[in-house]
Design brief:
The longest helix is centred in the middle third of the chain and has 32 residues, at about 65-95. The radius of gyration is 17 Å and the shape is elongated. The chain is mostly helical and about 190 residues long. The chain has one domain (about 5-55, about 60-185). The protein is about 75% helix and about 0% strand. It comes from Thauera aminoaromatica S2. Keywords: Membrane, Transmembrane, Transmembrane helix.
Length: about 190
């Protein structure tokens, strides 16, 4: 699968999903070759944005405070990924569908790619893209997960596939927000 397969995967269950279900990558490849490097993208983009224009985002924060925020963001990316991976299997099981560890990891990795890639919005100065792109990425993630669940797990009911996608992505985003809060709220006075 290449990055060119990602856009058609949003609206076609058969685009690259069939190929992925036939020859799924190993768990190690998914985690260490795709998920971890992609999870490093948002903190790296934030680092770049603050180096280039920290006065634009939050001018009062020191460089060490920004590094702490970047670490918290990376940790939150990993917690969100693990939560989504677990939820795919848990929600699927409530509907009598079995998701193997590799299938759940593959679905979580592919569905999170739009969210990780949306961090490229930080390369430009406007705040509109920084606010709008992640919201669009959440929609794309749900669509990818819905299509992937239908093809990879054999779920034929549209509403069940949509439920798995919505619950997993939104709970993953909540896990991400909670992790950010755990790291950042106690440190707010120091920032």
């Amino acid at each position: 699968m290449s990055s060119l397969h990602l856009p058609p995967m949003l609206w076609s269950s058969d685009a690259a999903w069939t190929e992925l279900s036939r020859r799924p990558p190993s768990l190690a490849t998914l985690v260490f070759g795709v998920a971890l490097p992609a999870a490093m993208l948002p903190p790296a983009m934030l680092s770049h944005a603050t180096d280039v224009g920290s006065a634009h985002y939050l001018p009062a924060l020191s460089a060490s405070a920004w590094q702490f925020v970047e670490f918290a963001l990376f940790a939150a990316q990993l917690v969100g990924f693990l939560m989504i991976r677990w939820l795919i299997g848990a929600v699927a099981a409530t509907h009598g569908v079995r998701a193997s560890a590799r299938d759940a990891c593959l679905l979580a990795t592919v569905s999170l790619l739009p969210l990780w890639l949306s961090s490229f919005a930080l390369l430009q100065d406007g705040t509109l893209a920084v606010l709008v792109l992640p919201v669009l990425a959440i929609g794309a993630s749900v669509a990818l997960l819905k299509r992937g669940v239908r093809c990879m797990l054999g779920v034929r009911e549209e509403i069940v596939a949509l439920e798995i996608g919505i619950v997993a992505i939104h709970c993953g985003v909540l896990a991400w927000a909670a992790t950010m809060a755990v790291f950042l709220v106690p440190g707010l006075p120091a920032l």
